[in-house]
Amino acid sequence: MDNNNLHNLRHSLAHLLAAAVLEIYTDAKNTIGPSIEDGFYYDFDFSSPISDKDLPKIEKKMRELLKTWKEFQSEEKTGEESKKYFSDNPYKLEIINEIVEKGEKITLYTCGNFTDLCRGGHLENPAKEIDSGSFKLDRIAGAYWRGNEKNKMLTRIYGLAFETKEELEAYIKQREEAQKRDHKKLGKELGLFTISELVGKGLPMLMPKGNIIKTELENFIRKEKEKLGYSFVTIPHIARKELYIKSGHMGKYDAMMPTMTDENGEEFVMKAMNCPHHFEIYNAEPHSYRDLPLRIAENTTVYRNEKSGELAGLLRVKNLTQDDTHHFIRADQIETEIEMIFGLMQRVYALFNFNDYKVEISVRDPKNKEKYFGSDEVWEKAEGILINSAKKMDLKYSVEEGEAAFYGPKIDIKVKDSIGREWQLTTVQLDFNQPENFEMDYTGEDGKKHRVVVLHVAIFGSFERFMGVLIEHYAGAFPLWLSPVQVKVIPVRENHNEYAKKVFELLKENGIRAELDDEDKNLGGKVRDAKNNKIPYWVVIGDKEIEANKITLESRDAGQLGQIGKEELVTKLLGEIRNKK
Predict the structure, then answer these.
(1) CA-angle at 387, arms to 404 and 412, nearest 5°
(2) What pLDDT is recorded for position 2?
(3) What range does the domain containing 497 cover?
(4) Is 326 one of the annotated binding-site residues?
(5) Residue 324: active-site member
(6) Ranges under pLDDT 50 in the chain
(7) How many domains does the chain have?
(8) Is 275 a catalytic residue?
(9) How confident is the model at residue 443, as a pLDDT?
């Protein structure tokens, strides 16, 4: 079943849900019910509250009605005819009035004994085409009418729907696994980050263990970029408002933070993007064609005034630290530079076992050209280059209209994690417009001035989001090199503490992140604590180990590994850390 048919299936089920609800709750008012990514929903105005406990009987009624739903019939109506039909439903009347004002046609769709105001998009024969085991009512939530908090709160009933029962069951299983891996839950349990109401929503704070992970990621990506000739810079976190007026962010980017005014009346803005600062770094010195490509990089935080309803743990925040880079290049270097970026991206993804990813090329919305900088010619050229680059690298890609940045098209990479969910990470944006805007030049081989081309690139995207993805990808069980605690040293009894402390000190001297658990509690409890904290290795020390001048090594992933010497342990761990195991 293609995406269009799946949409029609889900939309048909939204109608079926409304029909079932109105048969059981005869005074309820149905409003709107679209298909969504994993199913459908419908919003209702109930005279008395309902709860999740009521879903089974509604679902049962849906299955009963489905047997009789053998054909969707459409009928075009006038405004007056439609208003008469829905005279007791103020929500439908509001929609009808809007359609009449726009001069659009009004259609009513009927299946079984249920008729709804609708634009269409249904299965021809729901009874035949819908597997009765392929859908399930999921949950109830509140939703303001038309998404406006000034309007009445309605009851939204969500349903899950797929082509087959097997696909539905697989999705439910995946979602249950995702709930176990929820980075907010694991972040709290493992002491990685916290969000304080007093500090503010969308402003996560990394705790010591979480900061270790971020630091390891920063050091790793910095070394990888330095190998490729990137130069790292440092910029302030604020700038004069005029910088962002010049870049176009003031007016075209709606997540800019409010301005601040100093004692002289000069206005400053917290940076939502790093590129305008980096442009000014480029312009601080003259450049020759021999200097290019010039790649400048920075791991730095930007601040965005995201809507509170969209904030989510580390995945959607107001302060995000980007592994940001800007490539200042000649036009003839675009394709080779993009190939280099993809090579870096693929090495990074392989390290985290992100081996399945897809490419989306985001272009401007041709119907809303006023949202973007630059001429048609420049946009067509930039979009064509990105598409040709993807073809040349033999990448499967899709083109997404309206998803481009206001100054240029981009390539977005979505990876699949260990349980099959997609995450958007790497971004490569091609920009001909800002170099014109900021008059960024280089002296060509011909001795004349030429405009540079800019690539805006982030491999991780943001460290916060990437950490959130990694927490869920690994279910908190990080590889050794990333783990906040790499080894736990566990003496069996108090008389083993002295030897255990020597092992602990040896590990610390060699830069291995170790903890010594010398509390007066039983061995089982200490081992359980190591497992609960998902520590990669733990070392057990008792009489036999002291007598043999060795330790017993156990692995989170491989179980008991037996006795080895202290120096052998250090060599083993340092080798795995160096090789990013």
Answers:
(1) 45
(2) 56
(3) 487-578
(4) yes
(5) yes
(6) none
(7) 3
(8) yes
(9) 96
